[in-house]
Design a protein that fits this description.
Helix content is 49%, strand content 13%. Interacts transiently with the RNA polymerase catalytic core formed by RpoA, RpoB, RpoC and RpoZ (2 alpha, 1 beta, 1 beta' and 1 omega subunit) to form the RNA polymerase holoenzyme that can initiate transcription.
Length: 354
């Protein structure tokens, strides 16, 4: 299934014999061929819960594509289950959690072999909305929080996400991960301890974050060195994820002057090539989508802000991680154009390097 096809909704004509789930049966379904009415009811229930399922899976996996696949697989199991469970939410949450745990276990091996820093795939909008907990949900979606979750075992990560982010009860969590309630409580305690020890800190006032991000991007676009210096923390760092599939201006840069050097080198390239920095919320934090002159996605950028300063700048350049956002620009072509624009490749800060 292509990424363009993922997330478009259930595919009622597809069937599988695999059955999964918990809860007491109800409804009219028999065998693996639910009636038309039953299938319509299941489709409606699934679509209502799809945002929650994706949000659970994405926080466990850190991948938009894998989360979409996990949600689609969850639908296929629900569509062909012998009978509709007593609680669609409990059933579907359990299934998507189990699938995500399995995917994460295999993904761990690939991430160990990843070239350079690994970041989660950027997400512009969390489909699961809860106005009363919007700030909490956004912080759990941040790149910093997802990187911290990488330190947990797959089971710890799943339990933490279900309990701390989505407030599931331990009976539901136990059914979802296939462990006893006491074991899940222990997993939750361990996960919380690890998360608390390294929990990312952000500016408490979200409006203040947005205001400071606006100052950063204004200075970035205008090449205002003094403006940049005023918003960067003394220990600011810039970290970039290219996965070996995109040219890098640097993998890791530390200190305000070095970060400013990199940004100053990029500005004439962006201006000459018609590159646009589009401020957006990325993974619940202030950020931007960087596009070429034709609107293709070159990268995303996120800012961690604390105490009125930008502490961390993270960019994702790996085209594989940007494909779900639309057409991906040819960053190698931009690299060649950049060298022509500068007219010189003598200084490391004046060129993109692989």
């Amino acid at each position: 299934m292509s990424r363009a096809d993922r997330g478009r909704g259930p595919v009622p004509d597809r069937t599988r014999t695999e059955q999964a789930g918990t809860g007491t049966a109800r409804g009219e379904a028999t065998g693996t061929d639910p009636t038309h009415t039953e299938r319509a009811t299941r489709t409606e229930e699934f679509e209502e819960l799809r945002p929650l399922l994706f949000s659970i899976s994405y926080r466990i996996l850190g991948s938009v594509g894998e989360a979409e696949d996990a949600v689609q697989e969850t639908w296929l199991r629900y569509e062909t289950a012998a009978a509709r469970p007593a609680s669609a939410k409990a059933f579907l949450s359990a299934v998507v959690t189990r699938i995500s745990i399995d995917v994460l276990r295999s993904a761990r091996v690939r991430r160990e072999e990843y070239v350079g820093p690994w970041f989660p795939e950027p997400l512009l909008t969390d489909p699961y909305q809860d106005p009363e907990r919007s700030a909490e949900l956004a912080d759990s979606l941040s790149t910093a929080a997802l990187l911290l979750l990488e330190r947990l075992s797959p089971l710890e990560r799943a339990v933490f996400v279900l309990r701390e982010v989505f407030a599931f009860g331990f009976p539901e969590i136990a059914a979802a991960v296939g462990r006893s309630e006491p074991a899940c409580r222990q997993l939750a305690v361990r996960a919380r301890r690890h998360m608390d020890a390294g929990r990312p800190r952000f500016e408490a006032d979200r409006k203040e974050r947005e205001r400071l991000a606006g100052r950063f991007f204004d200075a970035f676009r205008e090449g205002d060195v003094d403006g940049l210096r005023a918003v960067l923390a003394a220990d600011v760092s810039m970290v970039n994820d290219a996965g070996g599939k995109a040219p890098l201006f640097a993998e890791y840069v530390a200190g305000p002057e070095h970060v400013i050097d990199v940004i100053a080198a990029l500005r004439p390239v962006f201006a000459g090539a018609g590159v646009v920095t589009e401020p957006r919320t990325v993974n619940g934090q202030p950020g931007a989508v960087v596009r070429d002159k034709d609107g293709g996605v070159l990268s995303t950028l996120t800012l961690d802000i604390l105490d009125g300063r930008v502490r961390t700048i993270r960019t994702v350049l790996n085209p594989d991680k940007l494909a779900h956002m639309g057409p991906v620009a040819d960053i190698w072509a931009l690299n060649r154009e950049a060298n022509l624009i500068r007219g010189s490749v003598d200084r490391p800060t004046d060129r993109l390097t692989h």
